[in-house]
Amino acid sequence: EIVLTQSPGTLSLSAGERATLSCRASQTVSGSFLAWYQQKPGQAPRLLIYGASNRATGISDRFSGSGSGTDFTLTISRLEPEDFAVYYCQQYGGSPSTFGPGTKVDIK
Amino acid sequence: QLQLQESGPGLVKPSETLSLTCSVSGASISHTTDYWGWLRHLPGKGLQWIGSIYYTGATYYNPSLKSPVTIYIDTSKNQFSLRLSSVTAADTAVYYCAKLHKIGGFDFWGQGTLVTVSS
Fold first, then answer.
1. Is A9 a residue whose pLDDT tops 80?
2. Measured between alpha carbons, how far is A50 from B29 in angstroms, rounded to an integer?
3. N or C end: fewer C-beta atoms under 10 angstroms in chain B?
4. Tens digit of pLDDT for each residue in B10-22?
């Protein structure tokens, strides 16, 4: 199965700063079938990005995804207070679908 | 607005069967061409896809799971369900049901339900 590695494990930033999160796959993710989620404590994950770069319905344009092959990036252009959360990547190009371990974005 | 809600026991004994149901409102399972899925958040280990089911009943399971899995759909009740047999403490997790976006990713989720496997 495809193993996803996310870095950094924790990202400490201030509101208004730019966040860059990385997701690396152990093998090529076919079709760029990669999604990003945001999860806050006690809540279900929320889909942010699908197909590596497509924003899900209702997602702010502060969130953008890029990448292909084995390297993918989620960028949050200017952090808002509600953006401090854990972010997961998921690949669904290979079976089984797998998730990365997450990057926690916390307040500096 | 589409809503999903998990229900089932919060405590299951080792070697027994974990059974959960996802009730869907705001859309008819039998009138959409969507996939529906079960996932879980294992403590300290992150998210794991368990399996998915199409409205026709076709199923896809994660072969990495040690406990046998069955997912089935009841269109008359607008529900789909998960059965995990012979569970162990390693199956303790928050279980989520979700809808798969047509181009990938799960775009609607239930609130999640904690299931503890313990005697």
1. yes
2. 22
3. N
4. 999 999 999 999 9
CB contact under 8 A, B105 and A56: yes
Question: Which of chain B's residues have a Cβ under 8 Å away from the Cβ of A44?
Answer: 96, 98, 109-112
Residues 6+ apart with CB under 8 A from B64: A1, A96, B48
> Which residue in B50, B95, B109, B114 has the most chain A C-beta atoms within 10 A of its own C-beta, making it the best mutation to test that interface?
B109
Please indicate whether, in this complex, the C-beta atoms of B46 and A102 are within 8 angstroms of each other.
yes
B38 reaches A (C-beta below 8 A): no
Using left for φ > 0, alpha for ψ between -120 and 50, and beta otherwise, residue B31 falls in alpha
B46–chain A Cβ distance below 8 A for any pair: yes
Structure tokens given for B63: 């072969």
The tokens 């004994």 sit on which residue? B13
Question: Order of strands across the sheet with B3-7?
Answer: B3-7, B18-25, B79-84, B69-74
Which among B28, B18, B33, B26 has a CA at the least distance from the CA of B2?
B26
Return the bridge partners of B104, or none: none
Tokens of A76: 């949050």
Cβ distance B46 to A92 less than 8 Å, yes or no, reads no
Q: pLDDT tens for residues B46-98?
A: 999 999 999 888 999 999 998 899 999 998 999 999 999 999 999 999 999 99
**In sequence order, which ranges of A42-98 are alpha helices (DSSP H)?**
none
B3 close contact with A: CB closer than 8 A? no
